[in-house]
Amino acid sequence: MSTNSTSISSGFLTDIKTHTADSHTKLEQLPVSMSIVSPDMKIEDYVHYLSLMHDVHNDTENIVYPLLSGIVEDLEHRKKKHLIENDLSFLHHTKINSAKVFEITNMSIPFALGVLYVMEGSTLGGRFILKNVSKLPELSTDKGVSYFNGYGDKTGSYWKTFLNVLAEYEQDYNCGDEIIKGAKYAFESIYNHFQNA
Questions:
Q1: What is the DSSP secondary-structure string of 106-150?
Q2: I want to staple 187 with a disulfide (CB 3.0 to 4.6 A). Which of 23, 53, 127, 197 is the partner?
Q3: Separation between Cα atoms, residue 89 and residue 83, nearest integer Å
Q4: Cβ distance 116 to 64 under 8 Å?
Q5: Tell me: the pLDDT tens digits for 73-93?
Q6: Helix, strand, coil share (%) of the chain residues, nearest 5
Q7: Quick check: helix, strand or coil at residue 169?
Q8: pTM, to two decimals
Q9: What DSSP string describes 51-77?
Q10: Of 84, 26, 44, nearest to 60 (Cα)?
């Protein structure tokens, strides 16, 4: 699977964005999601959000990553759970128990790619959230924000590289429906996790 920077022209990338748009919007409109983009965000909101996302990344790294290790070449560099742990530690918060987010553990590779599409997309979105959370006095020294910093200046190129892998895999195996199913499942699972918190 090549991860070159030349973009594959893929109607599929438009399809997956279109098919997940409603789920994405629904998730963004939850109070937990709204709290971290609010100008009135409190440090407690931030810690709560990080704690919930730790659960999501814990499941992603335990369930999804092993399935995609031969597909996404730079997968190890995409892990985020340790970044959240660093941020929580900086804020004197220890995450003790992880809640289950993804009930489906026996995923196909295309389905798992769909889940990773949502996770990688959230990293891209995190760069915008970073601008808001960095305004908190407790975080203004660039500490405690490593999760939302994503891949730093390389966040855009990491996203493009992943989209190329995704589009190429879909093209090679004609499995767009299954990838979209995985992405919708990820949005729905995270939505339920946030709503039940």
A1: S--HHHHHHHHHHHHHHHHHHHHHHHHHTTSGGGTTS-S-HHHHT
A2: 23
A3: 10
A4: yes
A5: 999 999 999 999 999 999 999
A6: 70, 0, 30
A7: helix
A8: 0.94
A9: HHHHHHHHHIIIIIHHHHTTTSTTGGG
A10: 84
